[in-house]
Amino acid sequence: MGNNVVKRYNVAISMDFNEGDYGGVFTNGLRQNNIFLYRMFRASKNCANVWLLNVGSREYRFPSGVLGLADDAIVRFDQIKDHLDYLVVVGTRPGEDQIRHLRDRGCKIIFYKGGNSAILSMEGMADPDPDKYGEFYFDASYYDAIWMTPQHIRSYAKWAKTMYRQEVHEVPQVWDASFLELQDSTTRGAFGYKKKKRGEKWKVGVTDPNITVMKTAHMPALVCEAAFRKRPALFEKIYITNALQYMQNAHFVSFMDALSAIRAGVMSVEQRFMLYDLLARHVHAIVTHHWENGLNYLYYEVLYGNYPLIHNSQFLSDYGYYYEDFDAEDGARALLRAIKEHDRSLDQYAARNAPLFAQLDPRSPDIIRLHETLMFAS
Fold it and tell me: What is the pTM of this model?
């Protein structure tokens, strides 16, 4: 790289697809992450080619022009196996023989850890379901580097360093609002917080997925319950989404039945909603909670629409309405503050959010430079 000349490179990002909308990109944050990484590499003047390497069993092609993807963005291994300089493995891996082929010809392989597999593995061992996901380590010697997003560093970086025998490098999350373009025209047209009419009550959504202890509805429901007890007249509806399937679970039924907002008919248990659609059509605010997962796309989507985000992420404590970990009463304070202040401070709220999206933008020169510096050092 003498004289600041960088050889143009070819890079692929591993991915699979399922039968959901747009190949399942809305069912898994890692699939969205792949698209943002693709957009980042495609924006780099140093990148000759970037591909999404389909390592799954299902074929898929995005509609032409969607998300800034080239028509030939999705490829199979044999199409690019002798052209790759770097492979970024995200969530799903090529086969052992394919990895060996790439390594033999000098391709560098980077493991991008967008999820917290330490906690997922602990859950996999504790859960009586033998098919519960936990990390598998047949690939412990495959990689030349590990990249990890900031929210997992504290609890997973040293675990991964020991297991994979590689240094773990922190990389920022990348995100933009491009997935909004995949929503229907009604959702796109209605998306964005609107000041409420005089006397209009609040509708609040809880959207935590309830598939891992990192993100369940327990604390958000308690935050809403504590706020409802203090000011019940403020609330029209509180929707606990992604939870209808748990109404056969004795613990969950007991938990919900203990809440006064449920008994008053204000809080209800609902099916899964697409977040953009939920925000555009059904709620004014989102209450959420995490444990060891303090950055996720939900936060950015809510903030991008300038909706009140009531959350406990220290990474984003300067944005939205922050409350302390596992403190429902402090969460209620944050929610009631949002109800009181949000309409009159909407312009300031939007202005405060704008720099965040510039920092996250996959086309940001700083974002590109950071990733390429780590990649070239692999």
Answer: 0.95
